[in-house]
Design brief:
Layout lengths: L14 H20 L10 E6 L5 H12 L3 E6 L11 H9 L4 E5 L3 H10 L4 E5 L5 H15 L7 E5 L4 H13 L2 E5 L8 H14 L2 E5 L2 H4 L5 E4 L11 H8 L6 H4 L7 E4 L11 H6 L1 H23 L2
Parallel strand pairs: 1-2, 1-3, 3-4, 5-6, 5-8, 6-7, 8-9
């Protein structure tokens, strides 16, 4: 169903397409662990445009393409004429003639959308300031591994900044029928349009989505508690101010007393211990968090295989 399509937002995926990605990711992970070759993208090339740097994104996409039988090209602003002012539409049309797919990690979501508009090959959103769909699909896979496949029975709570992760969790929860609560300070709620779109998506699955400013009320009986850095890339100048604003939203032992006793804590990394999460909580959930990190590889392989495969 996804062949030749862009993957810019979970909102753009059908419920069946989300399931297709998660099912193939689990299958590819099992094949990788068993040493079974799965060279689905033999001879294919992925261009990886990085306007924001990343450890996990680069290594997982590059390794994933290699394991799928293809190759990946790392393209920073220093490598592309984009960095010298060439219009996105010109770069897009050129790269379409060389590559089989493009991954972009950038700032404004409009840049990813414009790139997709001008290419005739699949574009994968590896992160924008608005959305982080690959990470949230990864997290859904990780939750299924630890809590079972029926996500509609689970309550997930996000605590912290209403950022690109929160926005994409709204879409992910909506598509899978989960109960999802975002607990953020008053002026840091998720994007309003994203929330409205997610509420409409939730009508199909029965997902229950809500926003609050009270983290302790939000995490009551939660099965999954998620957090992220308080200052995302590009917000470094706000770091000290944000530490004061978000201090009541730290994921710590006291907060987790309100959650289900079997609750898991997730973090997409990098984690700043002593800020959004305590050292003790991080280490108590390290197995889940590093499963989550590993699953970037398997989920993105599924996305590439489905969008770029023959």
């Amino acid at each position: 169903m996804l062949k030749g399509k862009d993957m810019l937002s979970i909102h753009d995926l059908s419920v069946d397409e989300v399931e297709e990605i998660l099912a193939l990711a689990a299958e590819l992970k099992a094949m990788q662990k068993a040493g079974v070759a799965h060279r689905i993208l033999e001879g294919k090339t992925l261009g990886m445009i990085f306007e924001k740097s990343s450890t996990r994104t680069r290594v997982s996409f590059e390794t994933g393409m290699y394991q799928l039988g293809g190759q990946a090209l790392f393209l920073s602003n220093r490598d592309l004429q984009l960095g010298r002012g060439e219009p996105i539409k010109d770069t897009a049309r050129v790269l379409s003639r060389y590559l089989d797919g493009i991954m972009i990690r950038t700032f404004g979501h409009d840049r990813a959308e414009e790139l997709a508009t001008w290419t005739d090959i699949p574009v994968i959103n590896a992160l924008t300031d608005l959305l982080h769909p690959c990470q949230v699909l990864t997290d859904l896979l990780t939750i299924r591994e630890h809590k079972g496949k029926d996500l509609s029975k689970l309550k997930m709570v996000y605590v912290g900044d209403g950022n690109n992760m929160t926005n994409s969790f709204l879409y992910g929860a909506a598509k899978t029928g989960m109960t999802f609560v975002a607990a953020t300070p008053e002026d840091y709620h998720p994007d309003k349009t994203v929330f409205e779109n997610a509420l409409r998506d939730a009508e199909e699955t029965g997902a229950d989505l809500s926003l609050t400013t009270d983290p302790y009320e939000a995490v009551k009986e939660a099965d999954i508690v998620v957090t992220d850095t308080w200052a995302s890339m590009g917000q470094e100048a706000e770091h000290e101010a944000r530490k004061k604003i978000f201090a009541p939203y730290q994921v710590n032992g006291d907060l987790l007393k309100k959650a289900d006793k079997r609750a898991i804590v997730m973090h997409c990394l990098p984690a700043y211990r002593g800020e959004e999460i305590t050292e003790a909580v991080f280490e108590a959930n390290a197995d889940v968090i590093f499963d989550e990190a590993e699953n970037r590889l398997h989920t993105q392989k599924a996305i590439m295989a489905l969008t770029m495969g023959d």
